[in-house]
Design a protein that fits this description.
Order of helices and strands of chain B: HHEHHEHEHEEEHEHEHEEHHHHHHH
Structural class of chain A: mainly alpha
Number of helices of chain B: 16
Strand order of the largest sheet of chain B: 2-1-3-10-4
Helix content of chain A: over 70%
Radius of gyration of chain B: 20 Å
Largest sheet of chain B: 5 strands, mixed
Number of strands of chain A: 0
Shape of chain A: globular
Radius of gyration of chain A: 24 Å
Strand content of chain B: 15-25%
Shape of chain B: globular
Helix content of chain B: 40-55%
Oligomer: heterodimer
Strand content of chain A: under 5%
Distance between the termini of chain B: 35 Å
Number of helices of chain A: 20
Largest sheet of chain A: none
Chain lengths: 519, 333
């Protein structure tokens, strides 16, 4: 960072602090927001408590971060070395990522007993998918000539992986890790809702009930600071590791759609369905969980199809889904547009990045339970508030992925543009944006389950409507058939959304990044 | 439920859990020689709400009875029923409405004792715009979780109030919407949000639903029929400790609050809040009835009232959901 940019950044942050303090003072007595001075006072009085809670949550988040990302790398390598597994791996990974906390939390608590097990697992579940998707893209982001070189030495896929793909995927891995850092911390915090004894999540629940705004905002600020530090730390490592300018990836456009018939797609879908049902059933049987709360596929089938009250059950589900769809679709689109637009803005106006970056990370990492009441007050309890919250959750992964994608603009081509003294806009349209497309579509795909998770969490904790609220209500009334049914429907819709995005993606990437397609 | 037995799952589950998470599993099984280890699943985060249990543990009353009790904290995503069904917890703290719906879904639960004779739900409002009686709700905006709509509906039915004349605003469980004027009143517990307001210097008015016909036993001790048949001694010892603990609690609620705060230094508990809460839950838990028959007792008439209110909530319950045999043994012996 140049001195000038750093100066602009510091100035911007200082201005924001003043603004924040002003808003805090203005709303004193409304119990909605605490300013920086309130936070410092609270921190001074409760330092020991905060440090112990932070240590607990941070430790669990770190373990989950490592476990989740290792799992993502292992899955990506498996999918690359054994191409037939690719669609099943990404499909199953998507389904597992879609499993709502309301359903998994209590089951994890029973499997692990007291202790940090559920927190670590939920942190890992919150991160592995957003690393896996960019990795799968990155493993293909290498020029065909490099693979020709490997083959000309008579080497196979393993050498390709170690010497070409591993290096090509590094920028994408770092994007994944940066997205994962705030998610791991939030995952560990929400994991504490399953009955953990201590940690930042436990303190948040307590503070909100106790009308302790200073405590709530101190916790949120610490969570945001931790995430910003982890994000910038990973960014610094990335800048040290990724020294080479991105290579030019030339690949011939491939035709889409006609290569394989509809039977192929149907067979893949059937395989995924079979695997899912098999694994679902086997996992519950192996863990030997009572069917009172751990419903098997046949239980759900009975409740939604053959039971006498099945049509009433389906109607309840349908009306909840309709309510959720109203929020999730606009929120998803808004978040996607915002993420890509902000990444492009930061490329064009580097000074904006110095101020905007911490805000962007903070927005993602502040627990939704803290910001929701404020947003609701500002935007009302109607659709706008919920849509905004969904957009906030979607925008961050999109933004980070696009930022990394924009940097994949090949150095040689930029050099050519420089020779012709082309302006920033021309470079953007002709070089950066096409280079960003694979990352953007990866983000658009990951954002499908992310937006659904976001909307269900908002509905569960804040608005009390839609599928998220239905799931929470079902759990409290022990209506586990409904809960598991909701899980199935939500996962199914995520897969459909994902497939729709993939179809658009194939059409566009067949022109701009054909190396991403093919078997 | 009928398809799979759950009687012999305990050992398997503990083995699985120990394998998955060795370190923490060691924590539960404190090696007290000759002691039986049992878990009790609490319904919420540690607080003075469960102080009777902390007193029993602190003074060694369970140890005397050959029981080593581990108290598992609850939370927003920690329902009580699954650990009790799966056998990881011998006893859970629930409420008659939740227990009734679990039983409808096939859980073999019985209510063994009732800590809160009076349901703790209140309508909380501010003194300059108070709700003193159900009729005052007409024309008001009430902040509550939509999931609790059946509770409000039951209150309205019991008191001939038109629920359509009340505006329901779905809110988070916090007093903030009332304090900043978004709503006129809240549906909450007598012992939490009003206490939070009092600690911040905000006076509030509370109308206890139990005083207007809403009869639903709360903070009930539940166990499975299997435990009731095969683990009676452990249940008697567990509830025996509870009864002694809660009697001591009633004798000095300030001491109970202090013990709670000291026991959980990482829980972020505030002593003043805990003291107020401890005092406020006494009238819900103790009455002439418990003076005469002991802590946790209930009458057949109370069961009838509960069944009527539960029917308004859409729950079809039979009187044998309540089982007094363990409590009789505790108070008889």
């Amino acid at each position: 960072m140049t001195g000038q940019r750093r100066g602009a950044g510091l100035l911007g942050i200082a201005a924001m602090m003043v603004l924040w303090e002003g808003v805090g003072r203005a709303f004193e007595g409304a119990f909605l927001i605490a300013g920086p001075s309130d936070i410092l006072v609270y921190l001074g009085a409760n330092l020991g408590l905060m440090v112990r809670a932070l240590g607990e949550t941070l430790g669990n988040a770190a373990l989950g971060f490592v476990a989740g990302n290792l799992a993502a790398i292992a899955l990506a390598v498996l999918a690359q070395l054994w191409p037939p597994s690719r669609s099943s791996v990404s499909g199953l990974a998507l389904i597992v990522f879609c499993l709502p906390l309301v359903a998994t939390g209590p089951i994890l608590r029973i499997l692990y007993g007291p202790g940090p097990g559920p927190q670590i697992t939920l942190a890992a579940l919150a991160v592995y998918y957003t690393t896996l998707v960019p990795l799968l893209v990155g493993l293909r982001a290498a020029p065909a000539s490099w693979f020709d070189l490997v083959r000309s030495y008579g080497r196979g896929p393993l050498t390709e992986l170690v010497h070409v793909r591993a290096w090509a995927t590094l920028p994408y891995l770092f994007a994944g890790l940066q997205i994962a850092a705030p998610a791991a911390f939030l995952g560990a915090m929400v994991g504490e809702f399953t009955g953990a004894e201590r940690g930042m999540g436990v303190l948040t629940i307590r503070a909100i009930r106790a009308l302790d705004v200073d405590a709530t905002w101190t916790i949120a600020t610490i969570a945001a600071l931790v995430s910003i530090l982890a994000y910038s730390g990973l960014g610094a490592i990335a800048r040290r590791v990724l020294l080479e300018k991105p290579a030019v990836i030339l690949s011939a456009p491939v035709s889409t759609g006609r290569r394989r018939g509809p039977w192929h797609a149907a067979a893949r879908l059937a395989l995924l369905l079979g695997l899912t049902i098999g694994l679902w059933w086997a996992a519950l049987e192996l863990a030997d969980l009572p069917s009172f709360f751990a419903k098997r596929p046949d239980d759900v089938w009975r409740a939604f199809v053959t039971a006498p009250d099945a049509s009433a059950t389906r109607a309840t589900m349908a009306s909840a889904l309709a309510g959720t769809a109203l929020f999730v679709v606009p929120g998803y689109l808004a978040g996607l547009a915002l993420g890509a637009a902000l990444a492009i803005l930061f490329l064009l106006v580097p000074a904006a990045a110095a101020v905007g970056m911490p805000v962007a990370v903070a927005l993602r990492s502040v627990p939704i339970v803290t910001t929701a009441p404020l947003l609701v007050l500002a935007l009302g309890r109607g659709a706008t508030g919920t849509i905004t919250l969904v957009a906030v959750m979607v925008f961050f992964p999109t933004f980070v992925a696009c930022l990394h994608g924009l940097r994949q603009a090949p150095g040689q081509i930029l050099d050519v543009f420089d020779t012709y003294a082309a302006g920033r806009l021309a470079r953007l349209v002709h070089v950066h944006v096409p280079a960003m497309l694979p990352a953007f579509f990866a983000a658009a795909r990951m954002a499908v389950p992310a937006s659904i998770l976001a909307v269900t969490v908002v509905e569960w904790l804040a608005t009390g409507r839609g599928v998220g609220a239905l799931m929470a209500l079902s759990a409290s009334l022990s209506d586990y058939d409904m809960l598991w049914g909701a899980v199935v429907v939500v996962s199914g819709l995520s897969i459909l959304g994902y497939a729709a995005i993939s179809a658009v993606e194939r059409r566009i990437l067949s022109v701009y990044a054909a190396e991403q397609l093919g078997a | 439920m009928t398809r799979r037995g759950i009687l012999d799952r305990r050992s398997v589950l503990k083995g699985g859990a120990a394998g998955l998470c060795g370190i923490s599993a060691v924590g539960i099984m404190r090696p007290a020689y000759g002691q039986t280890n049992v878990n009790m699943q609490l319904s919420w985060l540690h607080s003075v709400q469960f102080a009777g249990s902390y007193i029993a543990q602190d003074r060694g009353w369970w140890d005397e009875a050959g029981l080593s009790v581990s108290l598992q904290q609850g939370g927003p995503n920690a329902p009580v029923e699954p650990p009790v069904v799966s056998g990881t917890a011998l006893v859970g703290i629930s409420a008659a409405d939740y227990t009734a719906s679990a039983v409808e879904e096939g859980a073999p639960f019985k209510i063994l004792a009732v800590a809160m004779q009076k349901n703790p739900f209140v309508i909380a409002s501010l003194p300059d715009n108070p709700v003193n009686a159900p009729g005052d709700l007409v024309g008001k905006r009430i902040g509550m979780a939509l999931a609790n709509t059946p509770v409000l509906q039951a209150l309205c039915t019991l008191n001939d109030v038109d629920i359509d004349a009340i505006t329901i605003v779905p809110t988070q469980y916090s007093a903030a919407p009332l304090v900043n004027g978004e709503v006129d009143c809240l549906l909450c517990w007598e012992t939490d949000l009003p206490v939070a307001m009092a600690v911040r210097g905000i006076d509030s008015v509370t109308m206890l639903l139990a005083d207007h016909g809403y009869a639903v036993h709360s903070q009930t001790y539940i166990a499975t029929e299997d435990s009731l048949a095969n683990r009676r001694d452990e249940l008697v010892a567990l509830l025996g400790g509870e009864v002694r603990g809660w009697d001591a609690y009633r004798g000095d609620t300030d001491a109970a609050a202090r013990l709670t705060v000291e026991r959980f230094p990482d829980a972020g508990l505030d002593l003043e809040t805990q003291r107020l809460q401890a005092a406020r839950q006494v009238p819900l838990m103790f009455s002439e009835l418990t003076d005469e028959f002991g802590f946790g007792w209930w009458t057949d008439a109370a069961v009838e009232e509960n069944i009527e209110t539960l029917a308004l909530l859409g729950r079809d319950v039979s009187p044998d959901l309540w089982d007094r045999s363990i409590l009789e043994e505790v108070h008889g012996g």
